[in-house]
Design a protein that fits this description.
Layout: H1 2-19, E1 21-24, H2 27-33, E2 38-42, E3 47-49, H3 50-60, E4 67-69, H4 74-77, E5 83-89, E6 92-98, E7 101-106, E8 114-117, E9 125-128, E10 131-136, E11 139-142, E12 153-156, E13 159-164, E14 167-169, E15 176-179, E16 182-187, E17 190-192, E18 199-202, E19 205-210, E20 213-215, E21 223-226, E22 231-236, E23 239-241, E24 248-250, E25 254-257, E26 260-262, E27 274-277, E28 280-282
Amino acid sequence: MKKLSLILIAIAFYTVGIAQEIHVNSATEFLRAIGSNKTIVIESGSVFNLTDAMLQLHNNYPKEYPMLDYYENEEQMAPLNNKVFSLNAYDGPEIALKGVRNLVIKGEASNLPLLLAEPRYAYIFSLYDCSNITFENIIMGHTNKGYCEGGVVALNDCRKINFFNCDLFGCGTEGLTANNVDGVKFNNSHIHDCSYSIMTLYNCQNFSFNNSMFFNNRMFNLVNIQGGATTTIRFTNCHFFQNHGQLFSLSDSIQLENCFITQPMDEWGDTEVIMDNGSVWSQPSGYPYDD
């Protein structure tokens, strides 16, 4: 009986840790709240400049919120588990998370909060070795347009990442960049107005995009799915429209089901490896595009 009581107490403490909910109404509070086993609720309609907040935290607490060099960070990053820090991109800090587990970041569905980054060459968020992370009811993007680098969200060696009712907008080069990631759900969400592409997935598995829209993106290969280990990529009830560039650049087969694709036929890309069930492909009106 005593052993059972100890087990129940341990379970109770574990459950409390998982369920910890923190409400924030400033960018600084938000960054300080990030960690494992938490739910962060952002006040309805908030607009957070993450760059200003991270610079302030780094200046005040340099050891707690370090800034690593972008191109020489692997050794420095190794001990930073369950940690938020920044990478010094070409024109400012990029928010990075490493080793974070069981984190939910969500806003109110009626008035989605906006998370912004100023550096044009930095991602809004870069995740390294994270798992069970959910972004829900969030808008993310840049204040200014960048080129060559700097998308919206980058995932590296991550597992089980969710985007529910999110809006990833351009001024970032692409909405989603993933390398060696297993398990992403992208539901009722959008990627739009990105300057180079929609997404790049490299050596990724078990990605499902559901009831989502991808529009007003340009200008090279738009949906890039590459790497010999990339498998089980599925789009269901998704809509692609008003995009400029080759739509699909694929190293292996993907699945489409009941999608709507409005794209010039000569810009469809690698359709021969697509397993399609019931999608509708159409030519956009007014093509060629009026830039």
